[in-house]
Amino acid sequence: MLQAQLAAAAPNTETIYGKHAYFTQLQKEAEKSPKKASIELQVLEADGRIGSEIVILHADKVSENMDLLVDYLATLVNVRGLMNGATKVAVLTKEIDAKDVITRLQQCLKSNYGNTEFVMSFGEGTQFTTEPLKAELQAERAAPIPVAVDYNQGVGVGFDLGGQGIKWAQRAQPGQKPGTGRVKMDDLMHSGALANFIREKIQETESAIGQKIDAAHPVIITIPGPITPDGRIVLITNLEKTRPCTAKELEALQAEYSKGAILFQNDANVPGHFYTIEQNIQGNVIFNTLGTGLGLAILKDQKLGLGPMEAHIRLTSAADAVLHEGFGMNGDLESYANTAFVEHRTAQLCEQNSVVWTR
Fold this sequence. Notes:
359 residues; alpha+beta; five-stranded mixed sheet; four-stranded mixed sheet; 9 helices
């Protein structure tokens, strides 16, 4: 009976919350023992600050918990890296082989956490070390949109790329209601079609406003994936499988124009930044967009963070965890909060309750 009660009370270590609860429990058990082992995980984030997590457990329990411990460290790297970036990761240990932990950690990230390492390092690769990290403070991310007194006075054209299509908004005269439209991605699948569509819209706008696009009059294309602080595309997550040539096609289009004439920004960062300015919101803000994916912008006093700010946090490693094909990982937050999952789950609940539901 006691064993059954203990089993029922044990945390579910398949989830991110359960792993945290389990190692918190082990730390409490080890507090009064002189035989402690510990791992300090340090992450050099994109803004140059050091994020740190410490795991403590009884030295005699290290071996039996090593696989789960490494997976927990990978979870912490996944969370910190995708939110704030991770250019370097340090593993500092007591009574544990740090080099062995790093080898296991890298293998775990590669096997179970999809594109985490690629995205958290903005495609540059993460350096792993057993030496303590030092802060390397960086400049702020450039604002994705200019601050204006009245946004109704602007003219030009902008594009919002999504997993299912591309939307555009165009204004030829100050104060005029923008013209808007959407083209399905299915109609732009052959090579060059997307770039041709954007190019034609730019030419149409230049003719209407009598002004060529340039660094002073740029076109912004929002991208459903991480963008480096200096505006480079890292990954277009929800198009990686369905239209893998998209990033190269857009980069080639950008190169046709003068420097700064076409800018890439994350598709949640732009509306998030605009909303905090328009509403004059200060302090900490987490802004979400819901579509093919789950967009995420993190701001403090109307300034965006420097990290990737991607919603591919691995919530569960359960056998039936949903696979995100574009990110190459099971059980991420986006797969449980995007449009497809909401529709699928709604249909399930309706069927279970004998309710007729149509899309």
